[in-house]
């Protein structure tokens, strides 16, 4: 028996649909991204206070913040996909609506498959860079002042892209069964 937390409510009060298989993992990654944002905000505030009031800036904050933004985005991608909140244009599905539900379904499946390919491609392209970064001890920052290993940030980009690709792939069976993407049901009415 599925617990209430393991199902998503159906569209317009209909029967509950099973939750996305990656939902819990994706939400954990998004929570880590959220905590990272909080830590980054605190670090930036501490740097600003130290720089302006104590004449003691924290070295490396700008470099860390610049790498963090992309990492945080890739940590949260799978959660957005699982929840059906990835940004996409719904002009054509709205236009077609009830007149061509088969075509709307095909567009939804095509959108998911395109997402699979796009994010899988990003993961594949990023993998050699991650391996070189790991093996070559790649660092970023100002040598002698503040440097950080680049591979953890690259690993988050590759891992986040792989998770996003898998999340899209796991959407396809539900889309083929006729379920609209979560939270996207109103777009096709």
Break the fold down into its secondary structure elements and pairings:
Elements lengths: L6 E2 L8 E2 L4 H31 L7 H22 L8 H6 L4 H35 L3 E4 L3 E4 L1 H26 L13
Antiparallel strand pairs: 1-2, 3-4
Give a structural overview:
This protein is mainly alpha-helical and 189 residues long. It has one domain (20-84, 99-179). 63% of the residues lie in helices and 6% in strands. The strands form two sheets. A two-stranded antiparallel ribbon has the order 1-2. Helix 2 runs parallel beside helix 5. The radius of gyration is 21 Å and the shape is elongated. 24% of the residues are buried. Mean pLDDT is 83; it is low at 1-16 and 183-189.
Question: What's this model, at a glance?
Answer:
This protein has one domain (20-84, 99-179).
